[in-house]
Amino acid sequence: MHIVYPVVVSALLFSIGVYGVLARRNAILVLMSVELMLNAVNLNLVAFDVWLRDRLHGGQVLTLFVIVIAAAEIGLGLAIVLAVYRNRRSIDVDRLRDLAEGGSPEVSQQSEASPDRAAVGEDADREARS
Amino acid sequence: MISVVALIVLLPFAAAVAGLLGSRWPRGGSRTEENDRAAARRAAWFAIAPVTASSLLTLWLAVWSARALPRGSASYTGSEFWAGLLPGSTEGTLTVVDTGSVPISVTLRADGLSILIGVLVVVVALAVQVYSVGYMRDDPRYASYSAFISLFTSAMLLVVYAGDLIVLYAGWEIMGLCSYLLIGHWWEDRANSRAAVKAFLVTRLGDVGFLFGIFSLGMAAGSFRIDAVLSADIPRGTLITATMLLLAGVAGKSAQVPLQTWLPDAMAGPTPISALIHAATMVAAGIFIVARLYPAFLGAQPTLDVLGVVAAVGMLGAALAALAQNDLKRVLAYSTISQLAYMAGGLAAGSDKAAIFHLLTHGAFKALLFLGAGAVIHHVGSNLMSHMGGLRTSIPFTFAGMTIGFAALMGLPPASGFFSKDAVIAAIEHSHSPAQPFLYGAALLTVGVTGAYAMRAWLRTFFGPSRVEALPEPPPGTAHVFDGREAPRSMLWPIGVLAVPALLLGFAGVSEVDWGSALVSLIVALLGAGVVYTFWRGAPHQDPARMLGPFRTACERAFYVDEAYRAVFARPILRLAHGVVRADRQVVDGAVRGSGRLTMGLSGVVRLAQNGNAQLYVTGLLAGLLLITVAAVVLG
User: Fold this and answer.
1) Are residues A24 and A44 in the same domain?
2) Is A4 on the interface with B (CB under 8 A)?
3) What ipTM describes this predicted complex?
4) Chain B residue at shortest CA distance from A103
5) Per-residue pLDDT tens for A91-125?
6) C-alpha distance from A120 to closest chain B C-alpha (Å)
7) Which of B508, B572, B468, B416 lies closest to B84 in space, CA to CA?
8) Are residues A76 and A118 in the same domain?
9) What confidence tens digit (pLDDT) does each residue in B265-307 have?
10) Looking at the 3D structure of chain A, how many domains does it have?
11) pTM score over 0.90
């Protein structure tokens, strides 16, 4: 089998994964897209391992590593998604904007944190004055 | 011998240190009334005892010098006028400071001139210290006040006994500092601290010239030692430049035109300080320095001509200004400028002897007048002559003292001023300087005006109806409301002691009186006094200064010199300063703040990308990666 076929397939898979990461709003679908990208890479690794006739089968070994890491990663990711869902009742990536610079309209959920921050600021001020 | 001289200078300095540090020690700063009184008592001891010791040492030095053979223990013998009176002289170098070019030798030197002025300084300083004990009795800052007087005395003695121009300059500058501190003694009043700053700045303006004069003399002579400078062969051009620069310092310290404006304002200080500044220390230093470096000045005739013109303008202008003042102390201040101009005129006419003679008698009678004026002010509670009058019965002792002082000021025989002023006028009459006719005319006119203003002040203060009224609340500077008694004894003693030299010191020069010119000036003085008396006789209630007519306001404002300086120098400089401040605020600060604002604005644009959407970040990441890859492929 020519090397082009698996490479094209993996490229297609990777592109679908990129598209999913960039465009999907559901966090679970984003995680699935990441999975797609990882598997595209796995496919590449295995294909080239065979094509290059690597005696140590480094590509296949690395693939096993990637699968393990992907399993751990997806476990972690799903746990985070669950935790976010419990807090926010939503896993829409577009609405999870806590990292935004202050002042954007999406951070209205943050308002409950602001008194705390103000209190901390006052403490710091008092310390600086004393 | 030189250790005695050093002791004379250092004792008042030690008194200053002790008075500043020791008068409240060890009880510390708890300012109870009892503590204050104890501190004042101790400060008085610190102030008076060292100056007394210094005076005794000075007198001993004078006796030694008078007895010494012309070729005494030191090498300095000259043809100076004091050679006959105080021939002995001594000089000693404590240490030599190597500067890399011209070395500074810390040298003290006592010769006839130094000892004469030194006696004047310590006597007046002692009188002022004793007087201050009474005058400043209730002042909470008496300790620092008396310590500053001691420092002032020490600085003046350093100037007098300095054998090196740089050492002299050190004393000269300390005096400037002390005058600032003492004039601003009652700094709570804004006007007083302004007067102090003015005195400091104006004298400092002259000091700049003085310092450069010293430098050019020292560089030309290769040494700062006074006898080396005087004996060095300095080119005439350098000599003229250097003496002209020195003249700036002399004009600043001795309050001569055009730097005279600080002296009347210096009346903001306590009255004993005025006595000290006007009689013995500050203003005498300027005349002294010219006399000290007189051979150098004689070699620079143009400088002496300038000095003559300055003196002529100063003596007449200041006398006219004195005629119109209402404040007793300001009358005396302007008379000081006028009398100092006499001395400067005597120096310009080529007679340092007459100038120093007048300096000594003037020191005696002006200190007497100021201390008397202080007693009057103490008594009345006001500086203004319009609040005085008819005081001769209530304070007879002060009246007698001030009468002697005014007689000496007018130049009436037998008071000392008659002889010394005659010596100056005779010297001016016989000089050959190109400024001589101008100077002589001004001197004679000034004699008349001096008679007039002295007569006016005397009559307004001690004669006529009493205008004394109790002030509601005594401002700082006037110690008491009217209480109808003489001043305390500690204030009367110095007046009595100073009255003696003010009356008799002139007889030291009785053998050299030029009776012709003396008669002329006496007649002129009596003429001036007579005119004032006639005007006063006509209406004792009114100010005889009204005889000046429309000219009176100009005289009262001292010919608008202050206003002119304000318009020509102060305002443009202030405007420039405001401009600089505005430029600093808008250009320099503006650039700093603007760069901050620009950064904030730019970051605002960049921050738009930071919207919290992780997918956007990843998009940006991929786009960048893509760009780099494309670039690597295309360019690589």
Assistant:
1) yes
2) no
3) 0.71
4) B611
5) 888 888 877 766 544 444 444 444 444 444 444 45
6) 24
7) B508
8) no
9) 888 888 888 888 888 888 889 999 999 999 888 888 889 999 9
10) 2
11) no
